[in-house]
Amino acid sequence: MRPITTLARPFVAAPYIIIGLETLRDPGPRAEQVAPTVKPIADRLDWLPTKDPEALVRFQGALSLGTGALLLTGRFRRLTTFLLAAQLVPSLLTEHRYWTEDDPERRASERSHLLKNAGLFGALLMVATEPRRGPRAAQLRRQAHEARIQAAAEAKALRKQTAAEIRNARREAARRVRQARRRGARPTRRAARALKR
Description:
Elements lengths: L1 H24 L2 H17 L8 H21 L3 H18 L9 H26 L4 H50 L5 H8 L1
Helix pairs in contact: 1-3, 2-3, 3-4, 4-5, 6-7
């Protein structure tokens, strides 16, 4: 799934980055488009720092540019997709009001844009709320790595122990052969074989 999401991120981020740049460069046309809807809402909200539609559109453009760049780089995925979905809400409410259009072609075009934005909003919510699988996969990789390290350490310790046992067996066989020679007896076949190894 990771290669697909890596491929999809630029496609989702590009419209936000481009719209953010265009809005920051020239907020006038967009401010005129949303002013009839934004002005009454902004006047009711006392906590907004400015009531000017152009300033609000610039702020939305900067937010769009920043979140688009974060999405493109894959940083803060969940927070970024929530912010992108949240900034679509004013767009859904204020732009593409197809029911006010008299021209059938313009009405169809505005409805198409509204449905496209609604679909993008739903997709962003789905991505933002999908369960996290990354930490679990990272934990499994870490456990597998630790198991490999432990197995390698155990194999090394086993090799050392086996080598020590072989050395001790040879020494013991050599000691018995020496004792047998001192007594004048011939060494046993088993002891002779151990010495040859």
